[in-house]
Amino acid sequence: MRFPVSTPPAVPAGTLTTGPQPTLPAEGGLVLRPWADGDAPAVLAAYQDPEIRRWHTRRPASPEQVLQWFAHLRRSWQEETGASWAVTRDGAVVGRMVLGGFNLDDGEAGCAYWVVPAARGAGVASGALRAVSAWALGDGRLHRLWLDHSTGNVASCRVAVKAGFRLEGTKRSAAVHDDGRHDMHLHARVRGDA
Ligand SMILES: CC(C)(COP(=O)(O)OP(=O)(O)OC[C@H]1O[C@@H](n2cnc3c(N)ncnc32)[C@H](O)[C@@H]1OP(=O)(O)O)[C@@H](O)C(=O)NCCC(=O)NCCS
């Protein structure tokens, strides 16, 4: 039950689920599309990469676990709690882009991403983040998108800035990684930002 509040929701319930999760084109021939079960091996392989394991704590251990995760992601779209896209080029999965933790009352969501090693350094993450932001702050009717990354993750900081996410500050000791707690940079992009 949604307890009565004094302000109308920024994104009325049901706004996002009037249609299927969209497929989004991005610069450089990228296509962001909902995950398909056939992507499970690519996702499993991505989570073997040391850099992805360094900055993400999820540890899928089998194709079956990835398929369960995909099912959870499909429910998240239906329940308006989040959305996750396979970032693809020429049909192959080159990355992942996520909008999570929807707060429809305030019109806010958080972003996360990774790119497979072979596709890095070519604008995939920043291009995909720009594409998902344009959709979320446009047709998605959200007002503010945020992301955080370890202060040690310089490449992720660069991705955020390149996609128009301004640095807002440092959340001290905010996230647990495999090697302990990290300070996290908070970035955000608000509707109307350049
Ligand atoms: C971070 C990551 C998503 C970047 O993906 P990508 O597609 O290579 O990103 P882009 O090509 O759009 O941009 C990367 C930028 O970071 C810069 N960069 C990369 N490594 C860097 C480093 N070690 N120090 C400083 N800048 C770095 C690149 O030069 C580029 O900036 P530029 O275009 O101004 O030169 C990718 O490296 C990755 O998946 N890493 C492991 C998982 C991860 O860190 N996820 C984010 C968690 S918050």
Automatic annotation (TrEMBL):
Positions of region (Disordered): 1-23
Biased composition (Pro residues): 1-11
Record InterPro entries: Acyl_CoA_acyltransferase, GNAT_dom, Ribosomal_N-acetyltransferase
Listed Low complexity bias regions: 12-23
Coiled-coil annotated residue ranges, if any: none
Highest taxon of the lineage: Bacteria
Residue ranges annotated for the N-acetyltransferase domain, each copy included: 30-193
Name of a matching Pfam family: Acetyltransf_3
Protein name: RimJ/RimL family protein N-acetyltransferase
Organism the protein comes from: Micromonospora echinospora
